[in-house]
Amino acid sequence: MTTHHAPGPLDAPSRPAQSAHAGPGEPDPVRSLAGPGAAGAGRSGPGSSGGTAADSAAGTGGDSPAPGSAGPGAAAPPGGDPVKALMHRHRELCARAVDPLEIAAALEAHGMTDRTAARFRHRDVFSLAEEMYARVPRHTSDRSAPPASAHAVPEPVAGPAAGAGPSRLLTLVLLPALPGALCAGLLAGLAQAPPGRARTLAVMAGVLAVLSAVQLCLRHGPLRSPRPAGVAVRLATLWLLGYAVLGDGLLAAAVRGGPDRLWPVDTATALGLSLGMWPAVLCARLFTGGARRRLARSRGLGEFAAATRPLLLASLTCYLAALAGLLALAAALLGASPALAGAGALGALLLLARLLLVHGHRATPTVALATAAGVELAALCSVLASRLPGCDFLAVPAETLTEVCGAEAVPTLACAVAAFALLVRAVPALSRASAHTDPGTR
């Protein structure tokens, strides 16, 4: 049903004025957030001259102080209303927001900080968002409806949406279990198949089936990204997975002067990582769902960040514990010994990279994945290139590390360093409220 409301204070243009606090030559965040023609850093609040109609709609008197307004010692600003200009800039967001925290998250995503909010005479971004939310004229039917509960869970946003019933069963149970089931079936079939062309074709078909199942998991459920991953991310991920299965044996053979025959394949790592798709999906769901619940309950951006940081670390810890158990199970079933440290570091790297991609961060995961893949490729190529005349020195780092710690030390070191760098980036990035809001407001 389409509703119409009478023109309010948002429909009147604001008077342009110069920010009272912006120095000569420096960018004015008030102008950048409020847009062209924004008012200066004047006093904002329900008692300002431009907010009479909105004040009555919000149930506040004309002389009531703005929530979080500055104390009496603050300098008196010129006579504009910068909050009204800011509301003009974000009028659609203010109209559809269900609580002030949604507005605060959008302002944070646009670069506003508590220091910038002080120019609007508010102590922090959330206080400014509260005033913007209160000053928006709302339809009578909206005012008669009960306010959103502080404990209500908002609708799934920012990519990982999980429906109810069959959809939840599909995205959280069936699809995540498919890569592990296909990999286990492939390994069981290869154990019975005789060597030959048919076996080679079966391997190729099985690998493609497992990769297709992984792709399905990344397109549906909690690991779905709002935008497809770039080519660099896909190539780096494929290389890292391939090296985890084939790379250690190839590097060890190259250090010994080979390979002169087929090197061993780490089937236990392949099975463990395939089975690990299930806990990855569940832990991603645990993090995104918990973050949304905390977003609905929080009364400020700082409170939300403080509650989300331990949730991210707990989700990552649960995933690593589950992955270690699955790798041990795969080793027991296949009678092999997987590289637990290397596979664990790779799993942490891939999960953190995917979480950042899901919540709108693309550059950092791309760099981290490409760097880890580049280190592995450089180590392998340096050993092979050292066979050229006068190039013996190229293999010294890789050979030394391999002789001291084993061939698995190269991927372990590369993935662990990249995963740690991603964790340092992910903790502040994923604890921002703007990371868990509608991508259109970022």
Radius of gyration: 28 Å
Tally of DSSP helical segments: 18
Number of domains: 2
Q: Give the overall silhouette.
A: elongated
- Describe the largest sheet: none
- Proportion of residues in extended strands: under 5%
The sequence of SSEs as H and E is: HHHHHHHHHHHHHHHHHH
Low-pLDDT ranges: 1-32, 34-79, 140-164
Rounded average pLDDT? 75
Through-space gap between termini: 28 Å
Short description:
This protein has 442 residues and is mainly α. The chain has helices at residues 29-34, 52-58, 82-89, 91-96, 100-109, 114-117, 125-134, 140-144, 166-192, 197-219, 231-255, 267-275, 277-297, 301-334, 340-358, 363-385, 396-405, 409-430.
Account of the protein in words:
This protein is mainly α and about 450 residues long. It has two domains: about 20-145, no CATH class; about 165-440, no CATH class. It is about 60% helix and about 0% strand. The protein contains 18 helices and no strands. The chain has helices at about 30-35, 50-60, 80-90, 90-95, 100-110, 115, 125-135, 140-145, 165-190, 195-220, 230-255, 265-275, 275-295, 300-335, 340-360, 365-385, 395-405, 410-430. Helix 16 crosses helix 17. The longest helix has about 35 residues, at about 300-335. It is elongated. Mean pLDDT is about 75; it is low at about 1-30, about 35-80 and about 140-165.
